Amino acid sequence: EKFELPQKVKLYAFYRYDDSVSILRLLKINWHNYDEVIFNMLPTGFGNRTLPNALALIAPITLRIIFRQSNIKVIYHNSIFTNDIQTLGYNSAFDRIRSFFLRIVERTLFKNIDTFVPINLYKQKIDNSIGNNKVHVLNVRYLDAIATFYLNKVMNAELVESKKTDIPTIIMHGSWGPQKNIELGLMALREFAMGGGKFRLVISGGINHHFPEYKRKFQELLHSYSDVINEYLGPVTEKDVMKIFLAASLLILPYNTPGGHSAVLEQAIFFEVPTIAMDFPEYREQAMGHKNIVLTESDKLNGELINQCLKIKPENTIRVRSNVQECQKNIEYILKTRAD
After folding, report:
1. What is the C-alpha separation between 148 and 79, in angstroms, rounded?
2. Distance between CA 105 and CA 81 in Å, rounded?
3. Given pLDDT bands bounded at 50, 70 and 90, which one contains residue 221?
């Protein structure tokens, strides 16, 4: 996306997905010019192969320990210490070997660099696994929706009106892979429709890079359930996320397991979209204090779907400015946390 950054901020796209050599761009940066250098990372976010992920993950460690840069901080979204990688689909013998080395890298990162995780649960798990560390909890409430508001130039608006229709629009949105179990949601929606339920279903998002073999299964599901799917948008730009959520009456997250803190759930919270999600500890923490988020078991999804559709309101107003201000306070916490 093309957009203007504030004068005091520079965004470096130093790494290209699956391109190990691109990490050399880091050598062009004069680190002493900046008060803070923040890496936004997750362990599988840099490529489908081991080398790109490994080189990117050790970049902040190299800067902090070898080059003695004290202004390095990391936002870390999920960890080998916090997530069940086998349930997520990383269960080959080679994955187990990579997991062993990832533990070493993450332990070094957590003990030497101020690292911010998005939920208290992850901080607790890391504490229990490695003892003393420099891991902090960053309140990321509303943060995942900020980009789409920024790109749509409504950051300073007090309120934004939703755009719903008489027939409820149900959405399933995300980066799709086998762990997200879209078929469970489609089965529940088909049963709801057969019982007389009226809705319009929109699915958006592409296939997770790490599960290319899932693409065929995904296409088969779209074809098999075409009777309940009104529109498949495919991958969408960050700017268009706002359009999707403003039109949504209900979001369904039918996952087998959480991949970590859910960005999609966080977007739904900002847009005040009623949501049905599976009952995982991560989502319980995210949903705390939000009555329009319903957590349930897979065998109760159908019943909750009926209950939530009966409660849908045709219109609502999204509070923008107050939510953005809360995000700003949370970001200040990163800047104020000082390295030892």
Report:
1. 26
2. 11
3. very high
82, with CB counted inside 10 A (0-12, 13-18, 19+), is buried
Under 8 Å between Cβ of 289 and 271: no
CA–CA separation, 260 and 205 (whole Å): 18
Measured between alpha carbons, how far is 271 from 319 in angstroms, rounded to an integer?
8
Q: What is the DSSP string of 147-179?
A: HHHHHTT-TT-SEEE----SSPEEEEES-B-GG
The pTM of this model reads: 0.88
Q: What is the pLDDT of residues 46-57, one digit of tens each?
A: 777 788 888 888
196 Ramachandran zone, left/alpha/beta (phi>0; psi -120 to 50) = left
What sections of the chain are H helices per DSSP?
50-61, 93-112, 120-130, 143-151, 182-194, 214-224, 241-246, 263-270, 281-287, 301-311, 321-336
Half-sphere exposure of 197 (CA within 13 A, CB side): 25
| Cross-strand bridge partners of residue 72 | 37
Residues 243 and 149: beta-carbon distance below 8 Å = no
Segment 151-169, tens digit of pLDDT? 998 988 888 888 777 789 9
Ordered alpha helix ranges (H), 271-320: 281-287, 301-311
